[in-house]
Design goal:
424 residues, 8-stranded parallel barrel, two-stranded antiparallel ribbon, 50% helix, globular
């Protein structure tokens, strides 16, 4: 049975009990949200996870870290280190998005070392296979699509991005649309190119029932990819984006009927004033399925600092109901991220998630803030570093310009906390 089906029977899996403890809620709350599809617990039956996560309504906002090779840079050891660093700094999940090297070897290595759920995009494998055979990246069959999904499932992947919402009807409007950037989703572009070249329906949409059978067998959570997401704030909230969303609603209903866990992926580039609209519309159209957002990025002009723009958009999106934030690194739109980029990206998105959790009134988030306030009052530096989302940098800054007495080198003897304590 899938986690959803277990919950529908009124029973609890070991993973449900563990996430209930982490979220500080009764396990019955976990059961209820999973049973109705308002939350997902990604866990392939073949993957042993030390730190499972619950994503959805009423739970802490989660953060995903993307890693993976490219043709320009591919090192398995570097990707493994990126995975370790991402998890160390609080990533709740990883996605392996490699497009070069031995993809299966890389995927298996990350799954084996990961204490958190691991996601993937199977369509990348099909495209790379075609490229290696000196074919066009869209030269593969419908059977190749499903075979890659099975291969990822057998490797232990917990959740998969499947671009099933790009139908022929949706695609008809793209060519003559006013979009500046027609398609920026890599997986979405591969699917669209295949559909145009072969003049056929999206195989993920056409064979969605078969896809659900595979997902159910392994209890894979389907993440419905947003192939029509805007790649610039000027293209946000347009017809193509919302047409795909309505197709996703149909797919959400089919998945739930089958007992398969499902969530929706959301747009990347959105002006700040449209974040609320997008999140609430996704929740409404998607029948309260969990939302997995890339960013979002409220400006296109933060190159080199896109992780900061992402944190701003992510905090607001989380407040309005987004459940799962996909990080962005300082290398977004520029290059393959380094290990340091991964660290910075995770920290930025964890800050956004923490801000959103507070604004949503999450009990655990407020308790953590109270511990930080008390630590500051008591000048308990080690506890402050422990509670900080950027612990290493905080400790480094403190030691670089030390103060020999209680307090820090910013205020010295004129510390407001110390002065006030003498009179109150």
């Amino acid at each position: 049975m899938t986690q959803m089906e277990i919950a529908q029977k009124g029973t609890s899996s070991e993973e449900m009990k563990r996430v209930a403890e982490y979220e500080d809620v009764d396990v019955e709350v976990i059961q209820q949200r999973l049973a109705y599809g308002k939350a997902v617990l990604p866990k392939n039956k073949l993957h042993k996870i030390e730190k499972p996560m619950i994503v959805g309504e009423g739970f802490t906002v989660k953060v995903n870290a993307n890693i993976g090779t490219s043709q320009a840079f591919f090192s398995l050891e570097e990707e493994k280190e990126k995975a370790r660093v991402a998890i160390e700094y609080g990533a709740d999940s990883l996605m392996v998005l490699s497009t070069w090297g031995d993809l299966k070897e890389i995927r298996k290595a990350i799954i084996d070392l990961s204490a958190v759920p691991v996601g993937s995009v199977p369509i990348y494998d099909s495209a790379m296979k075609s490229y290696q055979l000196k074919k066009n990246v869209v030269d593969f069959s419908e059977k190749d699509f499903l075979n890659m999904v099975i291969s990822h499932a057998e490797d232990g992947i917990d959740f998969m991005t499947i671009h099933a919402g790009i139908t022929k009807k949706v695609l008809e409007h793209v060519k003559n649309s006013g979009r500046i950037l027609k398609v920026v989703s890599r997986g979405g572009a591969i699917i669209a190119g295949w559909m145009i070249k072969n003049n056929k329906e999206n195989p993920f949409y056409e064979y969605f029932d078969e896809l659900l059978d595979i997902a159910k067998d392994y209890d894979i959570t389907l993440s419905l990819g947003d192939g029509m997401r805007p790649g610039t704030v000027l293209d946000a909230s347009d017809v193509q984006q919302f047409e795909e969303l309505f197709v996703m609603r149909e797919l959400v209903e089919k998945a739930r009927e089958k007992g398969v866990q499902v969530m929706l992926e959301g747009p990347g580039h959105i002006p700040l004033n449209e974040v609320e609209l997008n999140v609430k519309l996704m929740k409404k159209i998607g029948e309260d399925a969990p939302i997995f957002l890339l960013g979002p990025l409220p400006t296109d002009r933060a190159m080199g600092y896109d992780h900061i723009a992402c944190a701003i958009g992510g905090a607001l999106a989380g407040y309005y109901g987004a459940d799962f934030l996909c990080y962005v690194t300082p290398s977004e739109h520029i290059s393959l991220p380094t290990i340091e980029d991964v660290r910075e990206g995770v920290i930025a998105s964890k800050i956004a998630a923490a801000i959103a959790d507070l604004a949503r009134g999450n009990r655990k988030a407020w308790w953590l803030e109270k511990q930080m306030a008390l630590s500051r009052k008591n000048f308990n530096w080690e506890e402050m570093f422990k509670l900080s989302l950027g612990k290493d940098l905080a400790r480094k800054k403190y030691k670089e310009r030390p103060y020999l007495h209680e307090g820090c080198s910013m205020c010295g003897p004129f510390c407001a906390i110390k002065i006030v304590e003498e009179f109150f």
